[in-house]
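Helix-turn-helix transcriptional regulator
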Amino acid sequence: MHGFSVDRHFVTESDAPPVIVLAGSDEEEHGSEPHRHRRGQLFGSLRGLLTVTLEAGVWAVPDTHAVWVPPYHVHGARSHGPFSGFAVYVAFDACATLPPTPGSLRVSGLLREAVLRAAAWPAGGLDERGERIAGVILDEIRTLPVDPLGLPLPRDARLLRIARAILDDPSDKRSLEAWAAWAAISARSLSRRFVTETGFTFSAWRQRARLLHALALLADGVPVTRIALELGYSTPSTFIALFKRTFGAPPAAYRERLRLSSPAKPA
């Protein structure tokens, strides 16, 4: 089914059909408020960038990846600039053998083609061919490699307040000690608990937040040098090196891929 609108009954109550696939595009930014439903959901990008926010963390979804959200996990999503993508809704019972926790998956060509084929199905039950394609989609979600594009959020209310403030303004240059004073927690406790609750040091977590924000700025067409300076890096080369080490390609190459995948504008 093309477009991102789906009958709420299928998402919240029905287990038939086992897989519902929507695909569509939007030239404007679009977002959804936090919500949850009975079906699991796979968010995928075909063009542009999507961010998915859950209670456990924030995931970036470039056009090479998808984010899996199991049933009943509270989540919201937002596109950044022109966006084309897909959503796969998986019936609750069919999620039993799928990953039990949210995660970012590297999309295979097989999954992408199966999803695009399924997006053309009419609403309703699946025929024998449809059941086979649905099985391929489920197998791919089950077995695709997981990539670390997520940013886990701490549970402690004071640390979560700091994390959300940094996500709102990744360029904030306050020191760990200044953040600790702002949140009424000792610097030592902040440092220790951040590692315990997120798996990252405070410095590494903030750096990752900046890099995920950089993905959104690249999708919006912001020049690389401006991104580096706005996010507080000492030089553009420092930012470029960190970006390449994290995402496997320099920011200019990522931006070029977005440009090449964008539809031509009418004259």
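thats it. The beta strands are 19-26, 31-35, 40-54, 57-61, 65-69, 75-90, 103-106, 146-147, 150-152. DSSP finds ten helices and nine strands in the chain. bye
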